[in-house]
Task: inverse folding
């Protein structure tokens, strides 16, 4: 249960950061915190959920959780790379705040 | 492994996340993010998943964090600020607290049904067999996604210069 609480707390902290921070870097970092919390919840649930833990079925569930978390890791890496590329492109135009980019066009 | 060790590692992750929330200087923000990611890796270890913990350190702390640092250093401006001091917002805080309450309430039954972590869960071969077996379509999709992301990054950052 404590793992679930910590994961939800981290997700909420990240959400608060996304809502309040006005700098693109800080918003990106907050999104990373949210995704970290979500992945942690996945891992916690897969390793402790139900009565299967400790048995062969439980080990299989835990392995599935690890496999999905590994896939998620790659997705988050792609997200960070694209986000930072957009950031670099925006900063070249002198824009670093979320409020500076009300419009996005080609 | 006691509950004390779990809460110690969790505290490191929470402190890192808090630093990301309140840091005014960009470099502190990155340091907070690094602390958070290492804390998450520690929690993976605590849940007997060293493979995931190692991947987290290599990919996030070694890759994503370096990417963040590189982007910040390449764009270093005179004022190295991550914006003005973050003002406490009651509305945003209550939204975040509400989401937290909803999540914990929804997962309470699952948490009550959970059992403590047992040894022998780190079956690296089982994870590999799953990735190249049942999860093969997803695995291939992620590969495609990474390729598309690579092309997108090049198009976004190099396309600028051509215009």
Result:
């Amino acid at each position: 249960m404590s793992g679930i609480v910590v994961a939800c707390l981290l997700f909420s902290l990240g959400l608060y950061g996304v809502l309040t921070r006005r700098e693109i870097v800080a918003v990106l970092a907050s999104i990373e915190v949210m995704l970290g919390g979500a992945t942690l919840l996945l891992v916690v649930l897969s390793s402790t959920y139900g009565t299967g833990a400790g048995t062969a079925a439980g080990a299989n569930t835990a392995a599935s959780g690890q496999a999905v978390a590994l896939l998620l890791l790659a997705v988050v890496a792609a997200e960070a790379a694209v986000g930072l590329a957009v950031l670099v492109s925006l900063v070249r135009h002198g824009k670093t705040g979320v409020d500076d980019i009300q419009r996005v066009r080609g | 492994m006691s509950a004390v060790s779990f809460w110690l590692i969790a505290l490191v992750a929470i402190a890192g996340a808090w630093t990301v929330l309140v840091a005014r200087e960009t470099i502190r923000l990155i340091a907070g993010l690094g602390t958070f990611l290492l804390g998450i890796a520690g929690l993976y270890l605590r849940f007997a998943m060293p493979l995931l913990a190692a991947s987290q350190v290599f990919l996030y702390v070694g890759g994503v964090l370096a990417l963040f640092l590189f982007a910040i250093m390449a764009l270093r401006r005179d004022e190295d600020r991550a914006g003005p001091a973050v003002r406490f917002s009651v509305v945003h805080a209550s939204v975040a607290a509400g989401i937290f309450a909803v999540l914990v309430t929804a997962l309470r039954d699952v948490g009550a049904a959970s059992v403590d972590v047992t040894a022998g869960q780190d079956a690296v071969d089982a994870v590999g067999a799953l990735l190249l077996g049942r999860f093969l379509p997803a695995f291939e999709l992620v590969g495609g996604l990474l390729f598309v992301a690579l092309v997108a990054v090049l198009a976004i950052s190099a396309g600028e210069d051509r215009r």
